[in-house]
Known about the structure:
By secondary structure, the protein is α/β, with parallel strands linked by helices. The chain has helices spanning about 20-30, 40-45, 50-55, 65-75, 90-105, 120-135, 140-165, 175-189, and strands spanning about 10-15, 35-40, 80-85, 110-115, 165-170. The two termini are about 30 Å apart.
Amino acid sequence: MTTDQPHPQLLLIFGGPGAGKGTQASQLSQRLGVPHISSGDLLREHQRHDTQNVMSSGELLPDDLVTRVVLARLEQPDAARGAILDGFPRTVAQARALDTWLEQRSGTLRAAFYLDVPPDELVARIVGRQESSHRRDDNAAVAERRVDIFNREMPPILDHYAAHGQLHRIDGTQSIDQVQMQIVAGLGR
Length: 189
Ligand code: AMP
């Protein structure tokens, strides 16, 4: 790696399904001029039957597959200065792989934001967006499964970043603008 290459700076947006990660990450991407990388969007582009079936059931895909796809996207030239990650990492193994990737590129984690929304509201939001999202996993039964998986997988990830003093918790039940303002305020600190 040559010294004139920029060191990537990453921002992470965490939250349950329907917490508003995509909306916030996309607004932040415009504000900061770095790409919004959603693991869910990348995986939906895969269009493989086995992948689609797992995603439709609400279960997580294997760490090695997801990590490979996300890190390959981070290697694209438009992400050389950094990116906003939405939906990744979702497991401790993924967080470790991301740590290693950053270390190898002398990159930094600028901040991680957790959009906190109660489980019942997450399910209600997912069911509410079903008509516009056209996603097979946006229905009540799968939404509950996704929220359960999120509640199981997320605490150790949040602990991982909180231990490094990089985690900002934000009340995700506020308006889109209020959440965005708090993220921006958190970046300034
Ligand atoms: P999302 O668009 O973030 O709600 O993700 C939709 C689905 O894609 C999830 O329910 C998983 O099946 C899969 N997925 C997305 N990101 C990950 C990840 N980091 N690890 C494992 N599976 C993922």
